[in-house]
Amino acid sequence: MNEGKIVKIIHLDYPFDASHLPEDVVLALGFFDGFHQGHRQIVKMAAEIANDHNLPLMVMTFNRHPKEVYAADQHFPYIDELSEKAAKMAAFGVDYLAVVNFTKTFSQLSAQAFVDGVICQLHASTVVAGFDYTYGAEKTADMAHLASYAQGRFDIICVRKQTLNGKKISSTAIRQAIQAGNIAQAAEWLGSHYELSGQVVHGKRNGHKLGFPTANLDWSAKKVLPKVGVYATKVLVAGQWYDAMTSVGYNVTIGANTKILIESNLFDFHQDIYGQIITIKWYQYLRPELKFAGLPALKTQLTADERMVRAYFRELAAKASKA
Predict the structure, then answer these.
(1) Partners of 262 in the beta sheet?
(2) Residue 220's CB: how many other CB atoms inside 10 A?
(3) Contact, 226 vs 249, CB < 8 A?
(4) The pTM is what?
(5) How many whole angstroms separate alpha carbon 113 and alpha carbon 144?
(6) Cα of 2 vs its chain's centroid, Å
(7) Buried b / exposed e along 130-146 (16+ C-beta atoms within 10 A)
(8) How far are the Cα atoms of 58, 77, 140, 278 from residue 197, in angstroms, in the given order?
(9) How far does CA 49 lie from the centroid of its chain?
(10) What is the biggest distance separating any 2 CA atoms in the chain, rounded to whole angstroms?
(11) Per-residue confidence (pLDDT) for residue 206, from 0 to 100
(12) How far is the C-alpha of 266 from the C-alpha of 240, rounded, in Å?
């Protein structure tokens, strides 16, 4: 791990000028959304090679998921924003993150053009990618045929399929788990808890009136959202994590909203943080959103939720102390 390391992000439009890029690099290929356990194996292997050869480690990814172009999916949900992806990679020794603008023209490159105009232009001495990495529309644009396109210009390392408890680790499966409320399963595959950041904005202060003041999050519309319900979470404010319970829903008891709201009640916290950026770390799904007969019944449920979340984090801390 490289604590405090900063990845240099390089934005590229194809065809790009390689004159300002490092002369020789070890190049890891992939989209790397979530930078999950499988992705980490690819980058770890690339980092070992880079260290052995005293070369910088570069990761090449795209500014948008190919589905946004191929399938015209403008609502594709991401696990990580680019800044989050870069921060995770920094801890694994990545020096450069090359972000290629994925356009329709770029998507139509042949496999040979991709190798010649992208991989070779990035000055790759070794390429490391997962077993299922593809780089063109042809059936032969896969890892099995990469050597024939490379023509000896770089070495190739293919990383085998990564599984956990017999299931393939994939960004798709993680997105589905988050959307289904299977937060603990998503965390296992990710190797860390899912996080969602945004600015604290003013709400209707209904939670405050009930004795459960909430921080209302304005988040990126591109991020994948946990399913509607109540969760055990931690919230990062000004460098400090606080235990919290977070609701994802429409406030159906107080008056249904048309837009999903994300509201966190931070335990033992009494500061005014409007306008600040906070991060929510998701630990456990508790229950679905329920419509209560009135505010007293809602307050009773929130009290029970708080007890449950506090007990959950006490148990988690006890397990960690024994580990």
Answers:
(1) 248
(2) 10
(3) no
(4) 0.92
(5) 17
(6) 19
(7) beebbbbeeeebbbeeb
(8) 26, 15, 40, 6
(9) 25
(10) 72
(11) 64
(12) 12
The sheet carrying 155-159 orders its strands as 8-12, 96-100, 57-62, 25-29, 124-130, 155-159
Q: Locate 308 and state its tokens.
A: 């449950």
- Contact yes or no for 277/198 (Cβ under 8 A): yes
| Structure confidence at residue 164 (pLDDT) | 87
The pair of three-digit structure tokens given for residue 315, joined into one six-digit string: 């148990």
pLDDT of residue 318 exceeding 90, the answer is: yes
- pLDDT value at 313 more than 90: yes
Token digits for 204? 């209707």
Helices 171-179 and 183-190, axial angle in degrees (round to 10): 160
Token pair 């159906």: residue: 252
Only one residue has tokens 């209560």, namely 292
First to last CA, the chain: 21
Give the CA distances from residue 209 to residues 201, 202, 203, in Å, rounded to whole numbers and listed in that order.
Answer: 17, 14, 12
